[in-house]
Amino acid sequence: MPKGRFEDFEILETIRMFQEEHLDVRTITLGISLGDCAATSADATCRRIYDKICARAERLVQVGDDISREYGVPIINKRVSVTPISQVAASSGAKDYAVFARALERAADAVGVNFIGGFSALVHKGFTDSDHRLVAAIPEALATTEKVCSSVNVATTRAGINMDAVAQMGRTILAAAERTKERDAIGCAKLVVFANAPEDNPFMAGAFTGAGEPEVVVNVGVSGPGVVMSALERHPDADFGELADIIKRAAFKITRVGQLVAREASKRLGAEFGILDLSLAPTPAVGDSVARILESMGLERTGAWGTTAALAMLNDAVKKGGTMASSYVGGLSGAFIPVSEDAGMVEAVECGALTLEKLEAMTCVCSVGIDMVAIPGDVSAATISAIIADEMAVGVFNNKTTAVRIIPVPGKGAGDRVHFGGLLGSAPILAVNRADASRFIARGGRIPAPIHSLRN
Amino acid sequence: MDDRRPASAYITVIGRDRVGIIADVSRLLADANVNILDISQTVLGDSFTMIMAVDHAKATLDIKALADRLEAQGRGMGLSILVQHAGIFDAMHRI
Asked: In this model, does residue A2 exceed pLDDT 80?
């Protein structure tokens, strides 16, 4: 039992943050190692995968709901992330890896989670035979499942950028779009291409359980753009030093909520406590927007000059407040800028203030990258690969995680709208610079890892 | 140093002011064998806010069931009743 008492204003502040400012635990993600599910046939592998997930995640949803009730904390999603399937399935002899995605889907249905991540491969240095089969199966896997999320790590700061993988992912994204074209290419909303992918990220669609993780681990993602936003609104004339302090205080409180939930969940699930991912993750709901935070700092629109500086400051202050609150902050931890999931970003695109080029610049200073961006369906695979290459370069050469989750929507062009529904939101399609990069992408090979001295 | 007896949970009641809210909520808590340590209430206009610090160690219900029951009973009385384990406030407001 906590020592001492709490004052009325503290209790009311907590309630206001949950009820009015959309503070929530965005996800409790149970990481499950599937290392012991490898078998010598596809059927046996699928069965082991299904059985293990069902056994270990059986109580996840119930535990999440219980904690939510007892502490009055909204916990939005319960999810599962697993060992990259390309590693688990390597010995199965299967030719078509989509069967493993469908096994993951059945397990997700059985335990009641809304997403399961880990239909993944790590190919930053090169492909194993199994990696090839997994990537080849991605369009089919995403078209025949609803809850399975896929990610491919194509670059790291230590290995450089695997440009063969970059080229292939451009084609894979187009194929995934084609396979789900009757639903605005929603398959691509569940596919992330990474540089420096974290092994403990709880957020979808990029979650998987890395090789250094324990058997079963609880990773929690917290989110609270609304809390930061309303704290800033209460101090309209603060200078940047004060602004940073205000953000840090809000981030601290948000992170502590997550830590409490993570510790309780890991205790009750008999799993290790991994990390807290403190990310400002927007949702389409009003008042839950990262763009609005940037605008409340004094920018007319997100995308205006000054946006990168505002985002850098926000991202850094969030991390500082978060690391004070918990010693185990990990995952992506920063501000997300998924266009379709953020009402302010959508407006900024619609009025012409926010372009793909500005989004790229913003990814230099925040988590993730070109995220949930819809582009015209007739953009070439080479151009998509080139977008990926640029974004991977930002990550590799700046020692950070970056990612591309881009959605070429068949039959639609710049300015048209797409609707994904739910948390994925809806968005206008952004224009893409069509100058050709196909010769660049066709070269193949690997862009060498960057030098770590002489940094400028 | 705060030497008041620590509370294990806090109950926040919000609604339109009328006669007997404290009596009604206290009756629900007594029925569940929850001990009230402190009550603070304010009335602004006709809106009523009350925060109760309670000890539910000997309660007949676990905190989840208590929260379910109080919320449902509160709704019947036109009140919003929120039961929260004190741990959440400790996490957010104490270093």
From this structure: no
pLDDT digits (tens, 9 = 90+) for B46-58: 889 999 999 999 9
Give ipTM to 2 decimals.
0.88
Q: Where are the domains of chain A?
A: 24-195
User: By percentage, how much of chain A surpasses pLDDT 70?
Assistant: 100
In a domain, B89, yes or no: yes
The C-alpha atoms of residue A262 and residue A28 are separated, in whole angstroms, by 7
Q: Which residues from chain A sit within 8 angstroms of residue B86, using beta carbons?
A: 1-2, 6
For the domain spanning A24-195, the CATH number is: 3.20.70.20
> What is the domain count for chain B?
1
Indicate whether B3 belongs to any domain: no
Domain interval for residue B34: 9-93
Contact B92 A5 (CB under 8 A): no
Q: What is the CATH number of the domain that holds B42?
A: 3.30.70.260
- A11 versus A84: the higher-pLDDT residue is A84
Q: Pairing state of beta strands A402-409 and A191-195? A: antiparallel
C-alpha pair distances (Å), A334 with each of A73, A281, A400, B90: 21, 8, 11, 25
Residue B63 lies in a domain: yes
- Give me the percent of chain A exceeding a pLDDT of 90: 79
User: Tell me: the pLDDT tens digits for A387-429?
Assistant: 999 999 999 999 999 999 999 999 999 989 998 877 788 889 9
Q: Is the CB of B7 less than 8 angstroms away from the CB of A5?
A: yes
A20, A62, A66, A71, best to mutate vs chain B, most B CBs in 10 Å: A71
